[in-house]
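Two quick folds needed for the group meeting slides. Do the first one here.
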Amino acid sequence: METVSDKQHAHELIERLPASRIATAVHFLEFMLLDPVARAVAAAPPDNEPLTDEDRRRFHGGQAWFAQRGGKGIPMEDVLAEFGLSPEDFPVKDAR
């Protein structure tokens, strides 16, 4: 649990930072406030796999598919129904 002195100390340290380091400190503090999954995603290394011609073809094919349908995809209920499922088969836990 944080104490007032811990918070004051953090403020003092921020005040002592050179202006060139403030943005880094702010990003670090924002990072600490993320939930664990978001923090893991933010810290993950970038995807550095090369983009292939097949990737490009599929991407453009997907764009064309959406354009033909007015930018709308397939409703999740329809996808689940193909597998004999419904949204009720996936209860949502209370986040509290």
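Then this one, please, same format:
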Amino acid sequence: MMRPAEKGYRLPEPLPDGLRAIGVEESGRAWLAVLPRLVAEVVERWQLEVGKPFLDASASLTLRAADQDGRPLVLKLQYPHREAEQEAAALRAWGGSGAVLLLAHDPDRHALLIERCRPGTPLYELDQDAALDVLIGLLPRLWRPAAAPFTSLAEEAAHWIETLPRLWEHAGRPFERELLDAALAVIGELASGQGEQVLLHQDLHTGNVLRAEREPWLVIDPKPLHGEREFGLAPIVRGAELGHSRKHVLHRLDRLSGELGLDRQRACGWAFVQTLAWSIDTVVWAEMIEVARWLRDAYRRA
């Protein structure tokens, strides 16, 4: 454990996969170079002891920590990027209702001190329908009216229209142009005329819902937007953790949209668009491209 009085911090060796991926880009390497200093500064400021990292964290260094009373916590140092900009604001908005509590935030160092979920086992350890039962209970609690400072779904959609063709070219055209054109057309159909705007967690897969003590299950790691509820189903519908097949994907879409009283076609369209948009990152996710094709076909048939 690193104690508050210690002024240095040594990055874990080997680096977790998420940190190694960040280091591919020049900006990521620059952040990794200053990261030991940032950790040491917030450990001193918040009087923490820190231990081993969570190896499955992405775009951050996320460490087991404890305060002076021995309370188990999580210290998260975020790689500064657009999707993480308002994580602290989303956690504040939820106030611990269905999500982990934010205990402290240092915006200059992109550091968050968060409640730790114990035992912390992920929701995907349940079978598909039991996991969907949990999510159907959680989602309405998270969907509360929200506006500033969160990026709107309309703004995110405009960003995809601008960037997706360029990313597709840069990635070596990893899927047919028709699929890209279909996504751009669906964005145009859905971005206007949305329903009530609420706070959304656009990465709410079942690895980001953990078993806890204060509540049975708590949501972590928000990448917030504000937009219509139908968009909020996308990460669950595509999530391979609950089964990767056309049948599984459409079952999740049908159960969630039906039991939450949402427009199935709009939910399907948003799931198609976001799945394709997120399939091209530092790597190309072939599994997500396959899901996008299933969702495109379902949207056309609706």
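Slide caption for protein two: Residues 78 and 110 are 5 Å apart (CA to CA).
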